[in-house]
């Protein structure tokens, strides 16, 4: 698992804390997480670092009742694919939202939360989750 | 490219083989395949073996060498192929290409997974490796959750219902009753699926494929050589493979598996056939929604009409298109073996050797194997030689 490893958690601070991705200046596509190569432009692409917008909408969602390793005691919880306002898509948990408001098309915004705490002696992984707004 | 045919097949029963190790499973399937081909071990020039996660399941890597060793075939080259749940299908295509290219005349293709040596939780970690660890598993997305995300979108966009998805499992278990190698021999009802409890809504326990031990093998031979041998054989007339983004969030559409469409397009073109020509299909139904998306993506039904087609019984045994006569993945899914087992089933169907689950007058068959949530797909089209 990639959750509890210290160098990885440290390396992922910009991505998981700040929602840092990148954008191809050639075709205008925004990527999250950041990509090494723009799949549209490849060598003609020019990737520049950027923070993703905090707002987006739910494309699809599920309520997880059987959690994988590290999430066994978190259930039930919601997972969604979210399209950010710049069209980049990501997968995230949806929290702090009334169940009836979690639906396709609902507007969401980024919040900062603990993601997992697998190893009692190890580091805690923090990162982004989303909550429904309005 | 030279034409390639399957001349022998072997498959273990699928289930919880607590009394058998991975090496015993591969030997059982491999020996059976060699025996049915009428060849002897020394005729085999190379091995391609599909295996997804033996390192996680039994702490054993180097499966290529293990296969050749256990089958008594040293020193021929033996290569492990890994493409998550499509490992078997990709191994088959690798073997196909090695014969088509002229590098070899006869190769053995195997697939195996020994999944019950670890707890269900550890098995889920192993299977999770098929997804994107850093952006999916990290956030608590299990594999059922990824397919549930596709299911919810399919329901939203096309009005597909949970009952229609339940029918996939009902039909799979019904066919599995007729397959002696199936993990389960029990009919289930729509109500039982609906009440089996959400794993990740809208998918329930009985919408999911089980954890299984098993192995399968086929012997491939250059077609002219197979003809001269005069044994019953099945020719592979199309083989397509495609890839897509590892993470589900990177896909252009969440209601289709684009890699399946691409792999099928390649295979249909090679075979000079279309979806209407297929009599029997073994498709990758790891979760019920995968069945519905596959019958659409393979071109049997229009996008969005898969659920309705199931409801109308169009995919039942000996109906419009016979889907998964073996019971599919719901009747056992040893991940690395599944793609090869599908080819074994199509071989038996096309030669009229499928017993009670025989599809009448099956002339053209298709096998469809998917890795992860759709980042790899392989399609093989076959006909009786
Ligand atoms: Zn670009």
From TrEMBL, chain A:
Highest rank taxon of the organism: Archaea
Residue ranges the record marks as coiled coil: none
Domain ChsH2 C-terminal OB-fold: 51-113
InterPro entries referenced in this protein's UniProt entry, alphabetically: ChsH2_C, ChsH2_Znr, NA-bd_OB-fold, Thioester_dehydratase-like
Cross-referenced Pfam families: OB_ChsH2_C, zf-ChsH2
Domain ChsH2 rubredoxin-like zinc ribbon: 23-43
Alphabetical list of PANTHER family matching this protein: BLR3430 PROTEIN (PTHR34075)
Protein name (Swiss-Prot/TrEMBL): Zn-ribbon domain-containing OB-fold protein
Automatic annotation (TrEMBL), chain B:
Molecular function terms from GO: acyltransferase activity, transferring groups other than amino-acyl groups
Keyword Zinc: no
Any single Pfam family the record assigns to this protein: Thiolase_C_1
Record-linked InterPro entries: Thiolase, Thiolase-like, Thiolase_C_2, Thiolase_N
Aminoacyl-tRNA synthetase is among the record's keywords: no
This protein's UniProt keywords: Isoprene biosynthesis
Domain Thiolase N-terminal: 5-223
SUPFAM superfamilies attached to this UniProt entry: Thiolase-like
One of the protein's GO biological processes: isoprenoid biosynthetic process
Domain Thiolase C-terminal: start-end pairs: 240-383
Official protein name in the record: Thiolase domain-containing protein
Taxonomic placement: Archaea, Candidatus Iainarchaeota, Candidatus Iainarchaeia, Candidatus Iainarchaeales, Candidatus Iainarchaeaceae
């Amino acid at each position: 698992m990639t959750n509890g490893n210290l160098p990885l958690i440290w390396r992922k601070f910009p991505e998981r804390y700040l929602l840092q991705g990148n954008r191809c200046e050639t075709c205008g596509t925004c990527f999250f997480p950041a990509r090494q190569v723009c799949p549209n432009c490849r060598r003609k692409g020019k990737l520049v670092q950027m923070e993703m917008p905090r707002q987006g909408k739910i494309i699809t969602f599920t309520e997880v009742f059987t959690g994988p390793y590290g999430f066994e005691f978190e259930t039930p919880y919601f997972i969604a694919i979210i399209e950010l306002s710049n069209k980049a898509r990501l997968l995230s948990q949806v929290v702090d939202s009334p169940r009836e408001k979690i639906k396709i098309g609902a507007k969401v915004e980024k919040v900062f939360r603990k993601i997992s705490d697998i190893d009692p002696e190890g580091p805690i992984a923090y990162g982004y989750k989303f909550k429904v707004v309005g | 490219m030279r034409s390639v045919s399957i001349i022998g097949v072997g498959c273990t029963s699928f289930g919880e083989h607590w009394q058998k190790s991975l090496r015993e499973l591969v030997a059982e399937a491999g020996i059976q395949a060699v025996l049915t081909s009428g060849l002897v071990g020394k005729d085999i020039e190379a091995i391609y073996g599909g295996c997804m996660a033996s390192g996680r399941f039994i702490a054993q890597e180097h499966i290529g060498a293990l296969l050749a060793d256990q089958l008594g075939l040293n020193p021929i080259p033996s290569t492990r192929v890994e493409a998550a749940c499509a490992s078997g299908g990709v191994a088959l295509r690798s073997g196909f290409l090695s014969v088509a290219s002229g590098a070899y005349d006869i190769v053995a293709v195997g697939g195996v997974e020994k999944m019950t040596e670890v707890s269900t939780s550890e098995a889920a970690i192993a299977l999770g490796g098929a997804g994107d660890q850093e952006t999916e598993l990290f956030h608590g997305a299990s594999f059922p959750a990824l397919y549930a995300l596709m299911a919810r979108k399919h329901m939203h966009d096309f009005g597909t219902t949970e009952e229609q998805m339940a029918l996939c499992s009902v039909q799979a278990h019904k066919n599995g009753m007729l397959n002696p190698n199936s993990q389960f021999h029990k009919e289930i009802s729509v109500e039982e699926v609906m009440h089996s409890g959400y794993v990740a809504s809208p998918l329930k326990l009985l919408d999911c494929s089980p954890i299984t031990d098993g192995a399968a093998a086929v012997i491939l031979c250059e077609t002219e050589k197979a003809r001269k041998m005069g044994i019953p054989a099945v020719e592979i007339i199309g083989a397509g493979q495609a890839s897509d983004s590892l993470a589900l969030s990177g896909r252009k559409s969440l209601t289709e598996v684009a890699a399946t469409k691409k792999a099928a397009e390649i295979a249909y073109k090679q075979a000079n056939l279309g979806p209407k020509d297929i009599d029997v299909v073994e498709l990758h139904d790891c979760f019920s929604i995968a069945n519905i998306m596959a019958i659409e993506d393979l071109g049997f039904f229009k996008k969005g009409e898969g659920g309705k087609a199931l409801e109308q019984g169009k995919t039942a045994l000996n109906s419009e298109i016979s889907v998964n006569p073996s019971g599919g993945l719901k009747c056992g899914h040893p991940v690395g073996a599944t793609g090869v087992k599908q080819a074994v089933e199509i071989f038996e169907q096309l030669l009229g050797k499928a017993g009670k689950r025989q599809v009448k007058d099956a002339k053209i068959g298709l096998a469809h194997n998917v890795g992860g949530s759709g980042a790899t797909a392989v399609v093989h089209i076959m006909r009786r030689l």
